[in-house]
Amino acid sequence: MTPDPKIVVALDYPAAAPALALVERLDPGRCALKVGKELFTRAGPALVETLVGLGYRVFLDLKFHDIPNTVAAACDAAADLGVWMVNVHASGGRRMMEAARERLAARTQPPLLIAVTVLTSLDRDDLAEIGCPDEPLARVLRLARLTQAAGLDGIVCSPLEAAAVRRELGAGFVLVTPGVRPGSAAVGDQKRVMTPRDALAAGADYLVIGRPITAAADPLAALAACEVETRED
Ligand code: C5P
Question: What homologous superfamily is domain 7-230 in, according to CATH?
């Protein structure tokens, strides 16, 4: 059976070498890996294929947002790399999300397709400035409903939004939450954080954790400290 680790380590590095140096110390049975825009732009698809080849589940976090045909083709290209999860922006609209889902549905083992609702860096004033009068949570819920209606597997959201999304969208809708800090870790520039245990209790399925693991002197010990909090009492 494929292990289903709850922790997704964010490989926020400027080159393949430091990312691979960390990955060598991790274990695909204990964590998935997230490759975002910086590392992908520098190290490209070859690195993603290397990580997949090492047995890791890879979340390709490129947040596609474009016309439906372009996003569907980009998701198809991501699936060709063998990734486990890929994402788009829900604000690209229903037709864009449906096009991506339909393209991936043609595969025997499609990656999970999830959507970003509202970036956690945006507050009420930022939303107002781009013509959105909603409160952030109301907008998250609206876009989460649209994502579900478009047939996607789930969303990325703040752990602070997870409970409300879970109540509204029900079980089986995948919730991926960054902004997670084990009890012992520094908060860094993440302002609104939750511990792994609280994020899972709020309904999160997968926890994206970067610096508490990547910047630790002993990343495996840091991963273990996070894992302890993901176990049921
Ligand atoms: O180091 P840290 O645990 O803060 O890393 C969190 C990861 O999650 C980073 O890769 C960051 O880009 C990503 N992320 C986030 N907040 C979001 C969406 C993604 O922190 N709203």
Answer: Aldolase class I (3.20.20.70)
